[in-house]
Amino acid sequence: MNILIMGGPGAGKGTMSAKIVEKFNVNHISTGDIFRSEIGKGTALGMEAKSFMDKGLLVPDEVVNNMVKSYLEKLEDKKNGFLLDGYPRTLDQAKAFDALAEGSELAIDKVIALEIDFEKLADRVTGRRICKECGEIYHIKSKPSKTDNVCDVCGGELFQRKDDTVESLTVRLEEYSSQTAPVLDYYDSKGIVTRIDASQPIDSVWNDTLTALEK
Ligand code: AP5
Ligand code: MG
């Protein structure tokens, strides 16, 4: 099964993705995570992406499309399918992905749309903490680690993303409304979208997500 998870910044895509990967053993393809890893390695791709990400702006379509294409080509085990998290997020990306998927087993089967009022997202992103080592996602209120700044899973140090500020969130929300919302309409017209109330507690969002994926 090939799944796409959509939602605004902080809606819970990464949190649900970890659960989907554990349950369905699919490959997780998060374009944001790939860019952050490239930035960490100091590659040319990472440096190009950083100039946009730090401001909350989308990285140009061509850069993202080429990166996803080469990532999928290198994927060794495609048998359980994949989970796209944060891509496609413009109509041009959706159309480029359709062109890539045509005649192959890459077509998206299901879209999970995490819906939440924008006002609730500032608290989500400013309270987020992530493990430097294993990527586990925490929140200082809704999902705190047992010891401050230490990962429960691996003992790694927790960090805050550079774009997790109210200023950057404002730009990311504008990008979401103008560029990403039309992508949801695009997949809606194909009849493959399930909308989920992402303002619920994590366990309830997961129950609804699982129900949608097992349908
Ligand atoms: P990306 O990394 O994709 O960031 P984003 O879309 O802004 O989404 P986030 O990762 O911030 O949020 P999330 O939905 O994953 O929430 P999470 O589960 O962590 O992209 C970053 C940047 O990269 C973009 O701005 C752009 O520059 C670039 N980029 C990436 N892809 C691109 C593309 N395709 N095209 C162009 N540019 C691209 O949860 C957030 C917090 O809330 C956590 O603390 C979590 O614990 C908590 N939480 C989650 N669910 C709940 C719940 N139900 N109740 C209470 N708390 C919850
Ligand atoms: Mg994420």
From TrEMBL:
Chain positions covered by the region annotation LID: 127-164
Q: Which reaction does it catalyse?
A: AMP + ATP = 2 ADP
Q: Where in the cell is it found?
A: Cytoplasm
Residues recorded as binding Zn(2+), renumbered to this chain, are C131, C134, C151, C154
An annotated GO BP: AMP salvage
Name the residues that bind AMP: T31, R36, L57, L58, V59, G86, Y87, P88, R89, Q93, R161, R172
InterPro entries, A to Z:
Adenyl_kin_sub, Adenylat/UMP-CMP_kin, Adenylat_kinase_CS, Adenylate_kinase_lid-dom, P-loop_NTPase
Protein residues bound to ATP = G10, A11, G12, K13, G14, T15, R128, I137, Y138, Q200
The record describes its quaternary structure and partners as: Monomer.
Record text about domains = Consists of three domains, a large central CORE domain and two small peripheral domains, NMPbind and LID, which undergo movements during catalysis. The LID domain closes over the site of phosphoryl transfer upon ATP binding. Assembling and dissambling the active center during each catalytic cycle provides an effective means to prevent ATP hydrolysis. Some bacteria have evolved a zinc-coordinating structure that stabilizes the LID domain.
Q: Which family does it belong to?
A: Belongs to the adenylate kinase family.
Q: What is this protein called?
A: Adenylate kinase
Species assigned in the record: [Clostridium] innocuum 2959
Its lineage reads: Bacteria, Bacillati, Bacillota, Clostridia, Eubacteriales
Encoding gene per record: adk
